[in-house]
Amino acid sequence: MTTVLLCEKKIQAEAIAKAFPTRKTSEGIDIKPCEAFPSGALIVWASGHLLELEEPEGYDAAYKTWKLGTLPILPERFRSKVSKFGMKQYRNVKPALQKASHIVIACDPGREGAAIGYSIVAFTGQAKKPVSYLWTQSLTPKAVQEAASKLRSKEETYPLYQAAHARAVSDWLVGINLTRAYSLLINQQASSRQGVFSVGRVQTPLLSLIAALEQEIRDFQKEPYWECRATFQYGNEVIEGKWTNGETHRILEQHKADNLAVYVKDRPAVIEDRSTSAKTYQPPQFYHLSSLLAAANERLKMPTKVTERALQSLYESGFVSYPRTDSRHVTPAEAATFPKVIKALGELPSYAELVPEAKEKPGKRYIDASKVSDHYAIIPTEQVPDPAKLKNDEVKVYDLIARSLLAAHYPVQKVEYEKLISVVDERFRFLTEGQRELQTGWRHVIPASKQDDDVIPDLQTQKGTVINAEVDEKETKPPKRYTQGSLRRAMEKHHLGTEATRSGIIDTLEKRGYITFEKNQAAATAKGELLINCLGSGSILTDVETTQKWEEYLTKVGAGERSADPFVNQTRHLVTQLVQEAKAASGSWNVASYETKAEEAETVGTCPSCGGVLKDKKAKKKTFIGCSGYRQGCLFSLPRTVAGKKLTDQQVQTLLTKGKTNTLKGFKGKKGKFSAALQLTSEGKITFI
């Protein structure tokens, strides 16, 4: 028997090979006869998705030109082709699979891994051969050996491929047809070419969420309010309190706040009530992908792309479990490894003092087999790394994961909260709040960003005096934009995409010009808002609940509980209907107003040389700021990036109007990062000052 293991990529193949006696050959990596493979085996690998669905023109040359008359495009039978980047690797994989008498898919354990493995097996004409799945959530030699001893059957794992294929086909139907329809219809009305308007089954509902929030922020009207703070002296102690009516501190009219401050000053006060309450805080659950990306983004300011890259490297090196998981629990089998992992962590200086106190036994909050489907939570493996051999980003991500495991073995945090009510003239109440930590617990492992206790002192008397009173003017704040971290949480909440696809969906929106990230905040562009406006508020394409139902159905397909065919057939009918609706509704679209908005958004400033409009331009893959008067001879331009720091529109506008900026952080020099102010010289050059 000739057994061939098909891996997703080379680094995965090399990690799996470490579990067995091997030798490298021109075909791949030979596994010598061993307990798992008595006759030996050959490991070969793809390079991710070697195959992709055929483009429309592959079915009919007439589809190459975008025309409304050819829509909808509904292939009777979908075909795949080798991607131009995957042809070389495909030529290595194909002959190995043709020689195999038993194929073992050893791709990632999940829907996308199954899609890669089974699609290659089918495309090479080997679908009738015996196929098994080496399903391992960790790439340590021990985990790989255990997985090899209990290979999963095709019956158990093939439905995952069916779900992935159904998703890919449905995404093709929606994307190809609706992208062409809306691109053609919008550009028909536009005064200048607006480019492609990509529509997607998951990306468009996500864009709708971001655009709706953008509109909410735009419509928000700030409202002023005032708070009255009074300083009380009780004996030798001084405390501060805010006026309250029992529900709010806000006073909506300034003269009332001012009058209150004047009235209570120097008047006697008495303590009406003093109460305490204790609260316990459980250690956080283990991470799944979305929560880990959010934590790294919010606590460490790491972009999600950077975190994912570091996490994938840690997984491929065998240091952490499979990362693209949606579970925050482990089974008892994984929990059995915890003592050994914690002991190994204790050998590292970063955790040496934490390990002796990690004595609590985690309960069902962490260990619950019923909460684990395909993948368990992200945890450290028994293969603990040497931090000195990791990249800086990998150290940061590993630290988050390691501390989550240690925290689960610590007691709860206990905090006491205290409230004190001071009354002036028997009618004006002021609230003083304090807190103190009674038990640090797991916060010793994961410190809070603000740890200082704010304790109300012991007062020897119930009677005091208002020694000062002040009024603070404040205003209501608009909703906060999504950050990279909170956007992942929103996608999880609305079931948009999967842990394996969410980052790619966000990247797609950014690459296609629908959203931008400025200081880690996502904002919809004029182009993104135009598409959502044209789709309309009642469109099924922007409805997150519909997308959630689709994802739920695909999950059932992956579990073998539903057939994929009805899902694809329903998508065919839906696409036909949506193309017709777009054609009928296009006459009412207001494209012109969004063109104006897009023009304004693209304007960086006014050219100091000729008065023209300054915009971002590209040359040789680099972005710079150029003048609209270029064709008339104006050569004024500015770099968008200076010493490794990308300048914001506001910073550029400050340079143009004031000639210099305040001190800015984040420049990169030969000796590392530095801060400096920028100056625009009379020759139009940017210099440091």
TrEMBL record:
Keyword presence, Isomerase: yes
Reactions catalysed: ATP-independent breakage of single-stranded DNA, followed by passage and rejoining
Stated name of the protein: DNA topoisomerase
GO cellular component: cytoplasmic replication fork
Swiss-Prot/TrEMBL GO biological process terms: DNA recombination; DNA repair; DNA topological change
Record keywords: DNA-binding, Isomerase, Topoisomerase
UniProt entry tagged with the keyword Membrane: no
Domain of life of the native organism: Bacteria
GO molecular function terms attached to this record: DNA binding; DNA topoisomerase type I (single strand cut, ATP-independent) activity
Pfam family, one: Topoisom_bac
InterPro entries xref list: Topo_IA, Topo_IA_2, Topo_IA_AS, Topo_IA_cen, Topo_IA_cen_sub1, Topo_IA_cen_sub2, Topo_IA_cen_sub3, Topo_IA_core_domain
Family: Belongs to the type IA topoisomerase family.
Annotated Topo IA-type catalytic domain residues: 157-579
PANTHER family: DNA TOPOISOMERASE 3-ALPHA, PROKARYOTIC DNA TOPOISOMERASE
Record organism: Salsuginibacillus halophilus
EC number(s) per entry: 5.6.2.1
